[in-house]
């Protein structure tokens, strides 16, 4: 891609998605600080961290309608200012309630970044280009997960997590401004259909079997990978394998690097080999990696497994691209945000649910390996079941072509 206004527009969304990934992943590294400074237990930590995803998911449907009617130039920056405010509130948090409020505002504020970008891409790119561009966007944006690993450990030691979140709020505000300035404000964004009563509206979307095959796999696959990247990878590494804080940061960095690689590969491979078959192969491998982690592997194998966990789990992003291809272009905003509702909602419920499960195994503040084995066996079963439900859709010709 040559250096042009369209590249700058792509970059504006990529930077915003980088920040979104930083926020969703950061608590995995600062979990110990939140336990010690604020006194959060496993269930509170899981619920508070998951509020990012609950809030994000909760506004997806109205965000989709707004994107189809008013366009990402208006909707995405307005929401991001709420994320900036939430980051500042989180930085001052000295109680569960304050941290929860900040985390929820960040989730709402980031709810229009990825879907806003995909809405814009639907106007800018052909179907084949759209798949590749979507993979490239999330591959670049997912580098925010790298920032929330080892670099965040260093920053936490240097200036503290509160200062990190205060500065992050200012950066989000600047990023919102760049999208407002760089993305054109055109009437062609407006979808001149009734969002509820049109045959192609929400009612038609939720009555589609295709939608449910995509959405349920997205909920399980996205929920599992983000629940661990965003929080539970850290406790697993400390409690199961006895890794130090720095080692935990390094392995979470590997996990996040794997997600970057997986995102980048997903669009490239889907455009060439077919979206449906690529999703099936990646999801199958994702289930195998979860099973391997559940069986308490040798300590030296854990970093490699977490890298593979990230690579294979990242192919969940192609399910959003699939939603774009499965429904008319005037419904892009609603179709993508509806699938994203289930993807991010699944993350909230899994992140919280994992906290409830491992909390039942807690003894004198210690979480035994059996707690994580139970969780990973459960997510493996869910992944396989969702994949079997999805299989008939993978054989459709449009998805075989990518």
Q: Any overview of this molecule?
A:
This protein has a single domain (5-401), classed as Growth Hormone, Chain: A. It is globular and about 55 Å long. It has helices spanning 5-25, 27-38, 42-58, 60-70, 72-91, 96-109, 113-124, 127-141, 143-147, 150-159, 161-182, 202-206, 209-241, 245-273, 275-294, 302-313, 318-326, 332-361, 369-394, 397-401. It is mainly α and 402 residues long. The chain contains 20 helices and no strands. It is 82% helix and 0% strand.
Summarize this structure as a short list of keywords or feature phrases.
single chain, 402 residues, mainly alpha, Growth Hormone, Chain: A, globular, disordered N terminus
What is the compact description of this entry?
The protein is mostly helical and 402 residues long. The chain has helices at residues 5-25, 27-38, 42-58, 60-70, 72-91, 96-109, 113-124, 127-141, 143-147, 150-159, 161-182, 202-206, 209-241, 245-273, 275-294, 302-313, 318-326, 332-361, 369-394, 397-401.
Tally of distinct domains: 1
The CATH C-level class name: Mainly Alpha
CATH topology: Growth Hormone, Chain: A
- Apparent shape: globular
Residue share in helix: over 70%
- Terminal-residue CA separation: 21 Å
Radius of gyration: 20 Å
Structural class assignment: mainly alpha
CATH architecture: Up-down Bundle
- Assess the beta-strand content as a share of residues: under 5%
- Counted by DSSP, the helix tally is 20
The mean pLDDT is 83
The low-confidence runs, each spanning 5 or more residues with pLDDT under 50, are 1-5, 189-199
